[in-house]
């Protein structure tokens, strides 16, 4: 593994008005000195743009002295823009988090996934080829495991049966990165995230959507009659994993044929403790009451509906993160209750003030 000191480096974080990206930039502000951090995001309206704007406002307020931080409103699918940025900044490390997320949205709006997740990622790869970087880190997803029956999910498993276009684009990212690593000797690491949650998260995620509905008195639908399990990962654990991986790039080596062995790796980042959806909803409700988002006497049972599995969903996600522990000394540690407590307290402050 090639160690990288991120201090005084020029770093591109795409999608950094998003949930994970904004938290990553906050962490880089805290940890690094002398760094230049460029944040590009298209600020699309897939979910409430005011949430993205509030994240950007927070980043501006937290920007430390001596840190050159730049936000650019733009789309990674815009090749001339990406080429211009790489020409201007000569990035040392690139973290590609910009993507069209969500399984169900990919069923009705496939074009957004092709543009951002395939064309956008291709533009990033091409820019890394033409302006060599020390490390490209990019977001993949636990969705690539599709309907795999073997658990926990390991990066050694075959992932050739996606059940959504979103999953197919993420698997494609891994294949494209492998190809570019092999052909152009670009060190790249893909990270398969498992159900990321936390304060100021994505409103299309279950914990956030359930909260909005319960607050309005609506009924929440629990898929597969509650017989789903999810490996929830708190955003701070995800960011810790990303920062560690950024600092350790796959090593460039030559094979017996004299050609590069692809400096390429893929890791799971997940807690390795899948939670039953009904237990998850119970903890969420308890924490929402504790934070004062919902009243003490809220009738939860009257607002739950058990429904069949939805297209594109999978019954279980369960991460085997032993490779991340082995190579980077890290395993996610924040419990679901602790994480949902932070979310509920943030929600009470952000929406109920």
Automatic annotation (TrEMBL):
Residues 11-255 form the NAD-dependent epimerase/dehydratase domain. Keywords: NAD. InterPro entries: Epimerase_deHydtase, NAD(P)-bd_dom_sf. The keyword Membrane does not apply. This is Nucleoside-diphosphate-sugar epimerase. The lineage of its organism: Bacteria, Pseudomonadati, Bacteroidota, Bacteroidia, Bacteroidales.
